[in-house]
Amino acid sequence: MDHRSGLNLEYNFGSDHRRESLRSKYRPFSHFDNMSEGISQNLDSPTPDRAVDSRRGSVLENLVGYQSRRRISEREKRELESEPLSPISSTKKKRKKIPITANLFGTRYEVVRHMAQRAGLTIQKEDDSSCYLIWSDSFVASDVITSLKDYQKINHFPGMGEICRKDCLARNMRRASRYLENDYNFVPKTWILPSEYSELQSYYKDLKRRSKKKTFILKPSNGAMGNGFGFSFKFSRIQVSLFRIPFRIILYRNAEKIAQSEQTVVQEYLEKPLLLEGFKCDMRIYVLMTSCDPLKLFLFDDGLIRMSTEKYTPPNEGNIEKLFMHLTNYSVNKHSENYEKSGKIDTGSKRTLQYFREYIRKRDIDDKLLWRHIIDLIIKTMIVAHPHVLHAYRMCRPGVSTGKDSVCFEILGFDIMLDKKLKPWLLEINRSPSFGTDEQLDYDIKSTLLYDTFKLLNIRASDKRRNMAEQKAQAQKRLFQGRVKKELDITDIQKKKISLSKKKDELKDLLQKVKKDAARDYYETQNCGGFQKIFPPPDRHARERYAKLMSEVHKISMEGLGKASGAFSQEILRTYNNPLKEEDILDLLAQCEADEKLTDKNLSKNKFSHDLRHSRGFPGFKKSTEEFDEDSDDDYDHDDPDGGEDCESDNMEEPFAFRNGTRRSRSECSTQRRKLSRPSSKTHKIGRTTSEERFGCQAKQEEENLKRTLSALNDMRIKFPGKTDEEAEFILDKVRHLFF
Fold it and tell me: Which intervals of the chain are annotated as region Disordered (predicted)?
């Protein structure tokens, strides 16, 4: 049970003692660590009964102390002793609950406020930028996201305009379909005017040459709710102003009459849509994105079916101007006299997605297969947006590691239309879908959507305190870690030890991250409400397929960057394709600790042998008695009982590296040193072997080279690049110290 996150996670990995010991060693603190607080008591502190007696006694003493002023009668004493006193309460006062504040000044929808309050949020009366939750119906600037603290949440991602603007969506989809034609074929042909005017004219001429007729619908590059809609056909041109919003219905005999200067998007009209009771319809599907690094998507299980208000017939010269037949937008059709409001889910001009699925199911249509196709369309669309959103988010939040809780989330409205063959077509995406509740059906769906969103975000009052503690710990780590100095005499074993220590720290951090991700996933599973997690998908094969597709899309978006593109694609595959599990990291930690122990053992052996060889080269070194007992048969000699004192006196007179005159051989000095360490004997031992004589000559040659080197160091002044004279002198002293 993780006391901090409130999650009950159990990991069952068998009876592997090594892994279990590591788990107990690296587990986070839990509520079991604090159980002793309620058990341990201070034996010196009085019990409640003793506290009452002590209080009564102190009162009596105080009263007796005032006998000089007023004498207390025996009756008053008896009454005071018999008076009951309440024991001292040992319970602490409850800490005041910290409110989870929400800044909703940026929304005009009351349902957002109601659901925020229902989810436990406290709505601020002022525009406070330090609130836990910030909601805005409009675009959010990048600097606002940059200024957010890690505990805060805002309802927009940067860079989402790459799929929410109609012109950007068309451009990105066309680019993806150029390389991945089989995956990105669910968007109608689209042209961005005026930049793609010539391509539109070429397409129209080709249709004319083949005697084919097409209907074109004109949309604003960045509009919503039917604003600025235009309609194009092939014969005449008509302009009308309808209701309070001007709608332009432009009919063209041919596409050559379309003006180049208009900032519009021209799209092929789907002439054979799936009809619901004879009316044209489309679907509004809600998708929640909680993270872009890594990408996390949730699909809401209900939505809206929006219907036209006139029976549909294919576009022709006589009906092309009928908006209520060809458009399904609620903002347009609500002005129709045929618009029907109904309190039931099976009647009216607006219905639920659940009703639609039941409707097609009754007509022997596999709604589960259709739903999988819609999910596939949504995931592929978000994969196209991912490079842009990820880049923008990392620019706004520099230094944030992958997998850290995102400060952004977004509810997207996907407008999808089905053709007669039940193929889903993506029309547009809204990053600020309407949360208007003109009908009870709207309130039921949108209130549940918002409430489940707030619960899924898991905003806690402790997030702020935990974030401040993490920032303080990181600051202290940067402050006290100091600068790592490179040792001049570092060995390969020491390098390996440093590498293992670094790897061990990285594995510990990764283990905590994996545990945190597992806790988050568990919470999302238990509190998803009406949401279904669609990315990363639970199926391994689907996850690998989408990871490969995402890698390809990132390569396309980073075309021309060379190695950077390939490295980032590999990062994508590692993140989504082969995530490490807790048991894998525990095994790596166990192996790392085993290697570390072996390295320490080798390092201690190497240090002992190094010190032994180094000490034998100095005449002042004396072997211990125990060491002589072990090798006395080979090395002990008594040929010259008087020579030891001369050798020792020489050593006391001058340092080893600066003695004048002819140097004694190593075997001679060694023999004389041993005479000082042990009483002489009349027993004669055999002389040194030929290998020992060679070793003595080699040591003598090394000492001569060392003597010349140190003499040269004393005679010259060495300049080190980038070092001051004092630092250079310090390095030389350290070199001398190593060899003395």
Answer: 71-94, 614-694
